Amino acid sequence: MSAGRLFAAHALLPAGWARDVLLAWDGQGAFTQVQAGAARPAGVAEAAGPVLPGMPNLHSHAFQRGMAGLAEYRGSGEDSFWSWRSLMYRFACRLTPAQLEAIAYGLYVEMLEAGYTAVCEFHYVHHDTGGRPYADSAEMALAVLRAARRAGIGLTLLPVLYQSGGFGAQPPGEGQRRFIHATGAMLRLLERLQAPCAGQGARLGLAPHSLRAVPPAALREALAGLDALDATAPIHIHIAEQEREVADCIAWSGQRPVAWLLDHAPVDARWCLVHATHMDAVEIRRAAASGAVAGLCPSTEANLGDGIFDLPAWMEAGGAWGVGSDSHVCVNAAEELMLLEYSQRLATRRRNVAAGAHQPEVATAMVLAAVRGGAQAAGRPVAGLAVGQRADFAVLDAAHPALAGLAAPQMLAGHVFASHRTSAVCGVHAGGQPVVVAGRHAGHEAARAGFIAARRQLIEESP
Fold first, then answer.
1. Are 390 and 380 in contact (CB under 8 A)?
2. CATH 3.40.1160.10 fits 4-52+393-445, yes or no
3. Is 78 a residue whose pLDDT tops 80?
4. What is the separation, in whole angstroms, between the first and last Cα of the chain?
5. How are strands ordered across the β-sheet holding 235-238?
6. Deepest in the core among 51, 83, 195, 344, taking most CB within 10 A?
7. CA 143 to each of CA 121, 287, 313, 400: distance values in angstroms, whole numbers, following the listed order
C-alpha cells in the first residue's frame, strides 16, 4: 500500500456534508487527515464529484450470487422462503472450493463497483459435497479469503455454527450436510482461521446461524469459546426473519425469538441481528437498548417475502442499523437504501421516513446511519471519513445526468433515488487503494468470466 491524498469540493463526513475537504491516508490505508475548509494543495487531485464514505455490506452469502434468478418461477405449491431454501440447499450441495472462489471474487468486484468497500461474509458451506470435512477444515473459508484479497474488499469472516434442523434440536436434513459442525470443531476452525485473517487484515467473528439451528447449550459453549479467542469479535445471527419462525420459536420456548435471545445470551454492541423483521414493540425497545445492530437486507427480504421491518419504531428507540445484500439478487448499495425507504413508504403511507429532525435529507441520513451500523457490525474501523478509520470511500460523477447541476445533498439523493444507482459511482478506494477507476474494477473482465464459468458448471450439473 502507499499513502495518498485527495481533495473534494464536497464530502460526506460523519457529522454531515462539508466543503473543500482534504483527505490524506497513510501506507497502512488509514485516514491521517480529514480537513474541511482546506485549500487544494498543488499536485493533489480533485475528486470528480462528491465523496461518500464506503458502505459496509453487513450480510453476505457469497455463493448465492450464483443462483440469483434461478428461483423466480412458480412451483406446484405455494412458494415461500421455505421452498426457496430447498432450492438453495441443492445448489450449495454441488459447490466446489474453486467455484466458490470464482463466484465470491465476481461478487466482490461487483460490490466494489457499486460502492460497497467492506463485506461481512456469513459463511456456512464448510464441508465437501458429501458432508465430510476437508483435510483442511478451512478449505472453503480460505476460498472466501482469497476472493476478498484478490478483489481488494475489506472482509469480516463469520464462520457459521449450524447443528440442528429446527427448534428443539431437531435432526438436520440431508440438504444441510455441508453446514454441520460440533461446537468444538467450530472453535478449532476459528483458531485455524486466525492467522490467515490477520495476514490480510480481515476480521474474524462467529455466526450462530439461528435459534432453530443452534441449541441453547451449544450457543452458550460457542460464545464462551469465542470470548476466549477474542472477547471483542463480532457475532451475527439470523433472527425472526419469517412469521413461521416466530410461531415455531413460541411453540418451542414460549417466547418470541428476539425476546428469547435477549433473555439467554449476552446481546450487546458486538451483535448483529440479521432479518430482525418480526419483532413486537417490547422486543424493539429491548433490542435497541442492547446496542445490537439490526441487519437489514431489503432486496432479499422482498425477494423472499419476509415482511417489512418497522424502521420508524426502531429509529425512535435509538436502534442502530445497516444494510446487506444477503442472497445477492441485487448487488447495489444505493438500491438497498432505496428499497428500504420505499418499503417504509408503502407500509406507513408517508415519504422520507428514514430522515429526521437531525438530518432532513433522507439519502444523507440513510447513508450515515448505514455506514455507522455497518462498521459496528463488521467490527472494523470503517465508520466513515474520519481520522483513524480505513480510507474507504466512493466518488460520484458530478457530470452524471441524474446529478449534474445539483447541490451535493441532492446529488446523493439523485444517486439513490434517480440514477441507475451504480452508474453514478465513478471511483472507489478501499484501504486507500484505488480499486475502481472510471466505474470499472481492474479485474472486471476476469471476475466476470470466472463467475460465468462457475455458474455454468453448477447449472449443467443440476439434476
1. yes
2. no
3. no
4. 46
5. 235-238, 271-274, 293-296, 320-323
6. 51
7. 12, 34, 40, 37
